[in-house]
Amino acid sequence: MLSYQHAYHAGNFADVHKHLCVHAVIDHLLRKKSAITFIDTHAGRGHYALDADETARLMEYREGVARLWDARERLSAEPLLADWLAAIASLQPGRRLERYPGSPWWLGARVRRQDRLSLFELHPGEHRHLADQSVVPAGLEGNLRHTHGDGLAGLMKILPVATPRLCVLIDPSFERKDEYAEVVDTLVEALHKVRHAVVMLWYPLLPAGRHQAMLDRLAASGMRKIWRSEVRRESPAQSSHGMYGSGMLVINPPWGLQERLDGAITHWLPLLGDRARHHAEWLVGE
What we know:
By secondary structure, this protein is an alpha/beta fold. 36% of the residues lie in helices and 20% in strands.
């Protein structure tokens, strides 16, 4: 099934949650000079024009990134949010919020000469957009490889990587029920090959609750150091929008990530409404 296109949802509250986490993880990883391979298994586009037909149809960004953008002056004292919003500002052609960066940009914008970035996208239209967009600093285009194909299968084909460190982002649409099991199978095999990899997994919180079986399987898999963050816009019973929340797992999270992300989300939650809640814990500890 290739119907999903993230452009319809770009910049929504789940993107904010996911990309705040991605931005914070990369900050921690770049504190060391050793080379990193970044892999995005479900890349989508490098960035999204907020006035494009797809994005303007639902305008979900108005309840996501736009609320933070409009409040950026009073959020300037929160370090992660301020830095994240400054990164978004660097992508704008002017002072207005006109573009939202996709995951390939968040991973690629700070790629260094010693790093590598591999992007996978299965949807042919989305892959064409991605191939036409710049997501790495000028002069480092040779450090980027984008592939039209299945990202979970592609990930397994390129492991282990040549660099000392590995950072992977997995964020499927989960349109198919089978994707939950496929993600678990891939993670178990990938972490068996590269035990030190930092892996970020985004998942939706939907009333059907299919994510719970995925979490239970991961908790019982034998993997260690799995940290979970969930932002709920409302409770499942109150949901009238389908997706009531956003989940992130980080396997082998950098030290200090939880405290930094907690601080940012605490300042963000009031912008989501009175029902918004954040829950973070170790799904599996040391």
